[in-house]
Structures
1.
Amino acid sequence: MSDCLFCKIIKGDIPSKKVYENDNVYAFEDLNPQAPHHILFIPKHHISTINEATPENAKHFGALFAGVKEYAAEIGVDEPGYRVVMNCNADAGQTVYHVHLHFLAGRSLTWPPG
Ligand code: AMP
Ligand code: ZN
């Protein structure tokens, strides 16, 4: 999608602080971090919202979790723990319409979220 912010980040047209990448996933620091580690994991394939999930594109969602698992172990937060969040549409606070898994770690997180 040519007008999508995160597609532009994947292409390198907009700068980002990359922390992890594989064939299907790109991950970079959130501009407005809510925890010591606040990373956005995005599929390289454009999908706007969770409402577009299908059996055919499920692998792109699965790849995000596989990437998160690897990265969490790499930075040593797999045992203390971390949170992943994916917002869908306005009521959840989605502002960028390319699905992304927020990865939050490095502090004790409260529940429920706001
Ligand atoms: P959401 O509200 O779930 O759609 O999350 C979008 C996230 O993208 C927010 O946490 C923003 O801080 C973050 N964000 C927006 N633009 C950029 C950017 N250029 N680089 C890194 N993070 C960004
Ligand atoms: Zn996109």
2.
Amino acid sequence: MPSPYSWPAISKIAYGGDYSPEQWPREVWREDVALMREAGVNMVSVGIFSWALIETAEGVFDFSWLDELLDLLHENGIAADLGTPTASPPAWFFAKYPEARVITRDGVTMGFGARGMASPSSPAYREAIVRYASRLAERYASHPAVVMWHVHNEYGVPVGEDYSPQSVRAWREWLKNRYSTLDGLNAAWGTAFWGQHYTDWEHVGAPAAAPSVVNPAQRLDFARFTDHQLRECFTLERDAIRAHGDQPITTNFMANQSWTTDLWAWAELVDIVSDDHYLWAADPEGEIGLAIAADLTRSVGRNKPWILMEHSTSAVNWQPRNIAKRPGEMARNSLAHVGRGADAVLFFQWRASRSGAEKFHSAMLPHAGTSSRVWKEVVQLGGALEKIDAIRGSRVQADVAILWDFESFWAQDLEWRPSEDITHAERIRAFYERLWRDNITIDFALPGHDLSAYKLVIAPAQYLLTAADAANLTRFVENGGTLLVSFFSAIVDENDAVHPGGYGAPLKDALGVTVDEFLPLREGEKSTVTWHDGSSLRADAWHEDLSLTTAQSVATYVDGPGALGGARPAITRNTYGAGTGWYLSTRLDADSLATVMADVYRDAGVVASDLPSGLEVITRHGDDARYTVAINHRDDNAQLPASGIELLTGETIAETLTVLPGGVAVVRSPHTAEGGGR
Ligand code: GAL
């Protein structure tokens, strides 16, 4: 049984990172702990890749160096987040169980010498991870340094799908469980198409590379199966640990960076949610992608404080161009995560590795040592986190939700879609970015969630929508909510089959419109849409031919395929029950989207901030105070109306706080009688 949600026994914002002392001689360990103390480090993650150095042969464990390390950490007041190294089995394991190696969709058997788990369906692998997790937990459950368990590392990457024979056997069992009968499977997969009808379970294979596009329903189920197998592996380890230790158990997610695992389901399995985030250097506004990841992490964790398990002090080493962080950027990134609900700021990694594939990755302690800029900023950040410690435990509240549904993304990502210009990641970023610039706080949600706390729900990319979830969204509108749906949504059901009644049919009551035909544009083609006040909006990539039932047209296509020889509706607004349903059938540029959103905000009663652009502000609400976290991405001063104490400087703010260029600030404002908790 998982323990109820719990925070590791650390009485501060957790600060530290992945620590790999096995790569260093003992004298370096002693220097490490001294420097950790200097930087204010209070927790490190250890053992994440140590399998081969602990279980030296099958069933033969040598814990001596880990004993020594955990004692050393404890003597120095540093807690341990103790990892199970099951993302990287030893050479002896693969030598003994070659059948446990993963086979890719193209039939390539994965070799050794990198990292990446064995087949999640391999009985030998499953037995080995349970043995390791049990022995580790048995030995260290009562070690005073161990405050948390870190199972595995980033499930789903670099190994997710596996096409090995043992995976195919497990897949057939999974399908039997899901469909009971072959008739059920044939119907769900639509196997009448292209002559794929099955007459024997033994003929059902994994959707490996084939002469043409493989059945999309089969591929969607394989994505579900893959996620299920990975979750089973996690659960096996978690339960093995729980039999001995009651510290919280986590595994590090990759929100907004990997889509293999359905984080909503995973968040139900862990005691505490943790996330790894790396800036995408090619994105000049990486802070927006960071904010998406942080908001998603908080949302899957049902809004409880969470752990930033990894980010980087400066450059990573695995992108085409690994851009170093600018002075102050590490602190801005860290505070942005804290503002969005993190109560822990950890890095990959403590000390830069001399050898191996990651030697050019930044670290808290870089190759250049303690005279480096990065080290000085690491020490400063440790001090800053101590000063804002009162923020711990406070919560973020949002009036707006954006739908984020992994199953829909898995389905949308399959082949032969109407236009390769349309992706869920791009649409979510476009809508999120508008709200981020308006400093409107966002939660992410599933379409089946209770949405009643939100004024506005946005569906930027809900390609797959079940009838039950559509009914939930319709009720949200009926009860007074504002729903904004972007094109290519409500197209298919859970089997990637088009909804009876056509595109958008499940939402026709809420939106008052359905889609007769998709009308994608050619690459680079632009078009104009006339807004209801006569102004022009700019669009590209996608138009649709709409059939309006109860909706009003508020913008029309005047050129491009959508005009169909005359002005035709492009954006619609519908009143349904006590609420409003908006539908956008085209891809607008950022300024045009801002025009539309101003009307949508008005309907929803949501207010955009009038702060200077580039001043990011998020509020956390505690029992007796609220905390305003301000991050100035500009290169000049930014003024923020605020009152209270700025925690980093201790300054009292009466009316206005000046946030320095590239600077951060956290203002604690005690609740007033009128202000209340929000
Ligand atoms: C993470 C991973 C770490 C390290 C890091 C480098 O995805 O969990 O082990 O490889 O990337 O950025």
